[in-house]
Amino acid sequence: MMISIITPVFNGERFIESCIANVIEQNCPSLEHIIIDGASTDSTVAIVKKYADQHRHIRWVSEKDRGQSDAMNKGIALAKGNILGFLNVDDYYEPDVLRKIVEIFKTLPEPSLLVGNCNVWDDKGKLLFVSKPVKINMTNILLGRFLEAFPMNPTGYFYHASLHGAIGLYKTDEHYGMDLDFILRAVQQANVAYRDEVWGNYRYLQGTKTYTDDVSGANSRRVMTIVNYHLMALPRSQRYRIYLHRFLIKRYDQVKAVFRKMFGWTAL
Questions:
Q1: Per-position b or e across 2-29, b if 16+ CB within 10 A of its CB
Q2: pLDDT below 50 — which residues of the chain?
Q3: Strand (E) or helix (H) holding 231
Q4: Which of 30, 106, 133, 157 can bridge 2 by disulfide, Cβ–Cβ 3.0-4.6 Å?
Q5: Do 259 and 221 belong together in one domain?
Q6: Which residues, in sequence order, are CB contacts of 175 under 8 Å at separation 6+?
């Protein structure tokens, strides 16, 4: 059993060396690291080539693409492993995680989506929170329970490559919410397994497209568009149950707010 780690990158000279080193230090014998560069104009390609010349598990291409989703799909097409993971250039794994993942997958039916926890860090190295998608399933994500149901970063999940045969590839016209769209499709087709262990580290950095998208408010609107698209694809009876559940959650939150304001209660 082999794991393919795919890194899409464009002008990532700040982090590409540490990204490559992080995978090397995993000491996982059944591993390949596929780096898909989007024709960077900085020193990214030179750094990748230096390490690829020294390590046989590194494979790479550098050419123009149509964005991150396109780069991810290129990596999937090149991957030889039956397990896939995505490592963005500015993120990193905990020590020896990949070797552990390979062993866990030996016990899982195919196709499976294996989900763990992920640390979320700010620019100053402060731990903002730990993403723990312990309640990951279609209904909870559609209800907006993202902190407890949606893995915040791909360093916290891995899956069988064969899953793409059932749900398709990443949508190339989606440049921000491709992870959310993928997870919503994956949980409907895959065996989902959760482990309460920290596997990855996500740097939530100022200036990145995700951070900028959040600050502008565009991310919230985009998330709702993706969620509602998948919601509308459900059978009517299931869709109405989720609408009702959303209404009850909203009313419950309103009641809590009233009691807190009137009495200072926090027990609800």
A1: ebbbbbbbbebbebbbebbebbbebebe
A2: none
A3: helix 218-232
A4: 30
A5: no
A6: 67, 68, 69, 209
pLDDT value of residue 210:
76
Global pTM reads 0.90
133 in the same domain as 252: no
Domain count, the chain: 2
Residue closest to 6 by CA, chosen among 65, 54, 62, 78 = 78
**CB 156, CB 162: distance < 8 Å:** no
pLDDT value for 259: 59
> Structural domain of residue 254, as residue ranges?
235-268
Question: pLDDT for 212-250, tens place per residue?
Answer: 777 777 888 888 899 999 999 999 998 998 989 888 877
Residues 261 and 189 in one domain: no
Q: Are 166 and 250 contained in the same domain?
A: no
**Which residue type does 267 have?**
A
